[in-house]
Amino acid sequence: MNQTVMITADSACDLTAELLARYRVKRIPLTITEGERSYRDGEDLTPDDIYDLYDRQHVLPKTSAISPQEFTDFFSPLVKSGCQVVHIDISSACSACYQNACIAAGELDGVYPVDSLHLTAGQGLLVIEACRLRDEGLSAPEIVQRLLAYREKISTSFVVDTLEFLWKGGRCSGLTALGANLLQVRPCLELREGEIKVARKYRGAMSKVYVQYIRDQLSREDLDTRLAVLVHSGRIDPVVLEQLRQEILTIAPFAEVPVIRAGCTITSHCGPGAMGVIFAVK
Question: Domains in the chain, ordered, with CATH?
Fold first, then answer.
């Protein structure tokens, strides 16, 4: 194990406290702003707080990228302790975090930012892979090169129950959101070259959409069965989540399928009921 390499990530990776501890990952939170008040993603504000605010006021908070100075303050103690740092950020097409991390890294020796080209558990899979490579004894530059190849193998997608939050956040028109809700259209969104694109559209009750979406996503023979992640944005019955996890295991023999709740960054854009199965291919 290479003790001199530290793996870090921003909070959009949505890894649970248990996974962060298991893989020894240090996390830096994005900023969530509501009016003149600022909160740290997952520390001062939870996804349920966002839903409570929206239920009361129909107002969504905004997410802000981590600043270069915040990154400098985060990286500096690690560098001073003798670590090389491989830092993994949310897709640069969705946030300025990666660019700001690069600015901070330019002032420090031994910090290597990586643009995940993914978000939520897709970014999280890249973080976990970085930890595996660290534990194999690879150096920071070697890890970065391996991650740039591995990120192309990750499939990040999710289905959304409502377009209301995407509309409120300016990511689709009000007319599109209204039409989709009236017709019970459930878009499947996926990351392509770091950008969110509509992959396909489902219709009907979400209970059936979830299952069909999982079957569609996992209908391939080149799955990397070490790990898949079931990520959701809340307000889904835990019994349903376990049924969906079992559906994943029925289709493919993944060694591990953790269920992860999306953090504030994803929640504020996707709204309740969104769900994705995130995995990699060989």
Answer: 5-30+65-152 (3.40.50.10440), 156-281 (3.30.1180.10)
